[in-house]
Amino acid sequence: MPELQRLRADHAPALLAFERENRAYFAKYVPDRGDAYFTEFDARLAALLAEQATGACHFHVLVDGEGAVVGRVNLVDVADGEAELGYRIAERAAGRGLATSAVRQVCEVAGAQYGLTALRAATDHDNEGSRAVLVRAGFVVVGEGEMEGTGRAEVRYRRAVAAG
User: Fold this and answer.
1) CA distance 156 to 146
2) Roughly what angle, to the nearest 10 degrees, separates helices 98-112 and 128-136?
3) Most confident residue range from 6-20, 32-46, 149-163
Protein backbone atom coordinates (compact mmCIF):
# COMPACT_ATOMS: atom_id res chain seq x y z
CA MET A 1 0.00 0.00 0.00
CA PRO A 2 1.45 3.42 -0.92
CA GLU A 3 2.48 5.69 1.92
CA LEU A 4 0.96 9.12 2.50
CA GLN A 5 3.76 11.68 2.88
CA ARG A 6 3.76 15.42 3.41
CA LEU A 7 5.05 17.09 0.24
CA ARG A 8 8.79 17.82 0.27
CA ALA A 9 11.21 19.26 -2.28
CA ASP A 10 12.75 15.84 -2.93
CA HIS A 11 9.38 14.61 -4.26
CA ALA A 12 9.81 16.92 -7.29
CA PRO A 13 10.98 14.40 -9.94
CA ALA A 14 8.37 11.78 -9.01
CA LEU A 15 5.61 14.39 -8.70
CA LEU A 16 6.41 15.89 -12.10
CA ALA A 17 6.41 12.42 -13.67
CA PHE A 18 3.02 11.70 -12.04
CA GLU A 19 1.49 14.91 -13.37
CA ARG A 20 2.87 14.38 -16.89
CA GLU A 21 1.83 10.72 -17.10
CA ASN A 22 -1.71 11.47 -15.95
CA ARG A 23 -2.34 14.83 -17.61
CA ALA A 24 -4.89 13.58 -20.16
CA TYR A 25 -6.58 11.34 -17.58
CA PHE A 26 -7.03 14.19 -15.10
CA ALA A 27 -8.29 16.53 -17.82
CA LYS A 28 -11.34 14.28 -18.20
CA TYR A 29 -12.50 15.42 -14.76
CA VAL A 30 -10.91 18.78 -13.94
CA PRO A 31 -9.59 21.66 -16.01
CA ASP A 32 -6.14 21.00 -17.47
CA ARG A 33 -3.27 22.70 -15.65
CA GLY A 34 -1.88 24.05 -18.92
CA ASP A 35 1.61 23.89 -20.40
CA ALA A 36 2.95 26.60 -18.06
CA TYR A 37 2.39 24.29 -15.09
CA PHE A 38 4.97 21.90 -16.52
CA THR A 39 7.48 24.41 -17.84
CA GLU A 40 7.44 26.33 -14.55
CA PHE A 41 7.13 23.26 -12.32
CA ASP A 42 10.18 23.88 -10.13
CA ALA A 43 9.18 27.46 -9.32
CA ARG A 44 5.59 26.38 -8.70
CA LEU A 45 6.67 23.61 -6.34
CA ALA A 46 8.90 26.03 -4.43
CA ALA A 47 5.94 28.39 -4.07
CA LEU A 48 3.70 25.57 -2.83
CA LEU A 49 6.27 24.51 -0.25
CA ALA A 50 6.62 28.12 0.93
CA GLU A 51 2.84 28.37 1.22
CA GLN A 52 2.75 25.07 3.10
CA ALA A 53 5.33 26.42 5.56
CA THR A 54 2.89 29.21 6.49
CA GLY A 55 0.13 26.71 7.35
CA ALA A 56 -2.20 28.08 4.65
CA CYS A 57 -2.10 24.73 2.83
CA HIS A 58 -1.03 21.15 3.48
CA PHE A 59 0.11 19.10 0.49
CA HIS A 60 0.55 15.32 0.48
CA VAL A 61 1.67 12.66 -1.97
CA LEU A 62 1.03 8.92 -2.07
CA VAL A 63 4.35 7.20 -2.71
CA ASP A 64 4.61 3.56 -3.74
CA GLY A 65 7.39 1.13 -2.79
CA GLU A 66 9.53 2.18 -5.76
CA GLY A 67 9.32 5.88 -4.88
CA ALA A 68 6.80 6.76 -7.59
CA VAL A 69 4.01 9.19 -6.79
CA VAL A 70 0.65 7.52 -7.42
CA GLY A 71 -1.56 10.18 -5.89
CA ARG A 72 -1.92 13.58 -4.30
CA VAL A 73 -4.17 14.68 -1.44
CA ASN A 74 -4.16 18.36 -0.62
CA LEU A 75 -5.77 20.64 1.93
CA VAL A 76 -5.91 24.20 0.66
CA ASP A 77 -7.36 27.53 1.74
CA VAL A 78 -6.95 26.76 5.44
CA ALA A 79 -8.94 29.29 7.48
CA ASP A 80 -11.08 29.30 10.61
CA GLY A 81 -10.40 25.62 11.31
CA GLU A 82 -11.46 24.45 7.85
CA ALA A 83 -9.82 23.58 4.54
CA GLU A 84 -10.74 22.48 1.02
CA LEU A 85 -9.80 18.88 0.18
CA GLY A 86 -8.59 17.92 -3.28
CA TYR A 87 -7.09 14.67 -4.53
CA ARG A 88 -5.85 12.89 -7.65
CA ILE A 89 -4.95 9.26 -8.15
CA ALA A 90 -2.87 7.97 -11.06
CA GLU A 91 -4.88 6.24 -13.75
CA ARG A 92 -2.86 3.05 -13.30
CA ALA A 93 -3.65 3.04 -9.55
CA ALA A 94 -7.36 3.92 -9.78
CA GLY A 95 -10.06 1.53 -8.64
CA ARG A 96 -8.03 -0.11 -5.86
CA GLY A 97 -9.27 1.87 -2.88
CA LEU A 98 -6.22 4.15 -2.72
CA ALA A 99 -8.24 7.37 -2.96
CA THR A 100 -10.59 6.35 -0.16
CA SER A 101 -7.71 5.25 2.06
CA ALA A 102 -5.69 8.41 1.38
CA VAL A 103 -8.66 10.73 1.96
CA ARG A 104 -9.45 8.99 5.24
CA GLN A 105 -5.81 9.33 6.32
CA VAL A 106 -5.74 13.03 5.46
CA CYS A 107 -8.97 13.53 7.42
CA GLU A 108 -7.24 12.07 10.48
CA VAL A 109 -4.11 14.15 9.93
CA ALA A 110 -6.20 17.29 9.36
CA GLY A 111 -7.57 17.11 12.87
CA ALA A 112 -4.72 15.50 14.77
CA GLN A 113 -1.77 17.39 13.26
CA TYR A 114 -3.21 20.54 11.70
CA GLY A 115 -5.94 21.27 14.25
CA LEU A 116 -8.71 21.52 11.67
CA THR A 117 -12.32 20.82 12.56
CA ALA A 118 -13.96 20.46 9.12
CA LEU A 119 -13.11 19.80 5.48
CA ARG A 120 -14.93 20.81 2.33
CA ALA A 121 -14.70 19.09 -1.05
CA ALA A 122 -16.31 19.30 -4.47
CA THR A 123 -16.34 16.99 -7.47
CA ASP A 124 -17.73 16.89 -10.96
CA HIS A 125 -21.35 15.74 -10.80
CA ASP A 126 -20.62 13.03 -13.39
CA ASN A 127 -17.54 11.67 -11.59
CA GLU A 128 -19.24 8.82 -9.76
CA GLY A 129 -15.94 7.34 -8.55
CA SER A 130 -14.88 10.55 -6.84
CA ARG A 131 -18.32 11.03 -5.35
CA ALA A 132 -18.19 7.50 -3.92
CA VAL A 133 -14.74 8.14 -2.41
CA LEU A 134 -16.00 11.18 -0.56
CA VAL A 135 -19.07 9.39 0.80
CA ARG A 136 -16.98 6.37 1.90
CA ALA A 137 -14.61 8.79 3.66
CA GLY A 138 -17.47 10.30 5.66
CA PHE A 139 -18.33 13.41 3.64
CA VAL A 140 -21.96 14.44 3.20
CA VAL A 141 -23.51 16.39 0.35
CA VAL A 142 -24.17 20.02 1.23
CA GLY A 143 -25.09 21.43 -2.16
CA GLU A 144 -24.52 21.67 -5.87
CA GLY A 145 -23.11 24.33 -8.13
CA GLU A 146 -20.95 24.96 -11.15
CA MET A 147 -17.27 24.05 -11.40
CA GLU A 148 -15.29 27.24 -11.70
CA GLY A 149 -14.24 27.94 -15.26
CA THR A 150 -15.86 24.84 -16.77
CA GLY A 151 -19.60 25.30 -16.76
CA ARG A 152 -19.88 21.71 -15.53
CA ALA A 153 -22.07 20.77 -12.57
CA GLU A 154 -20.38 19.93 -9.29
CA VAL A 155 -21.49 18.39 -6.02
CA ARG A 156 -20.20 19.98 -2.80
CA TYR A 157 -19.42 18.03 0.36
CA ARG A 158 -18.42 18.65 3.96
CA ARG A 159 -17.04 16.52 6.78
CA ALA A 160 -16.26 17.27 10.40
CA VAL A 161 -12.87 16.10 11.66
CA ALA A 162 -11.70 15.67 15.23
CA ALA A 163 -9.12 18.25 16.21
CA GLY A 164 -6.19 16.79 18.08
Assistant:
1) 10
2) 40
3) 6-20
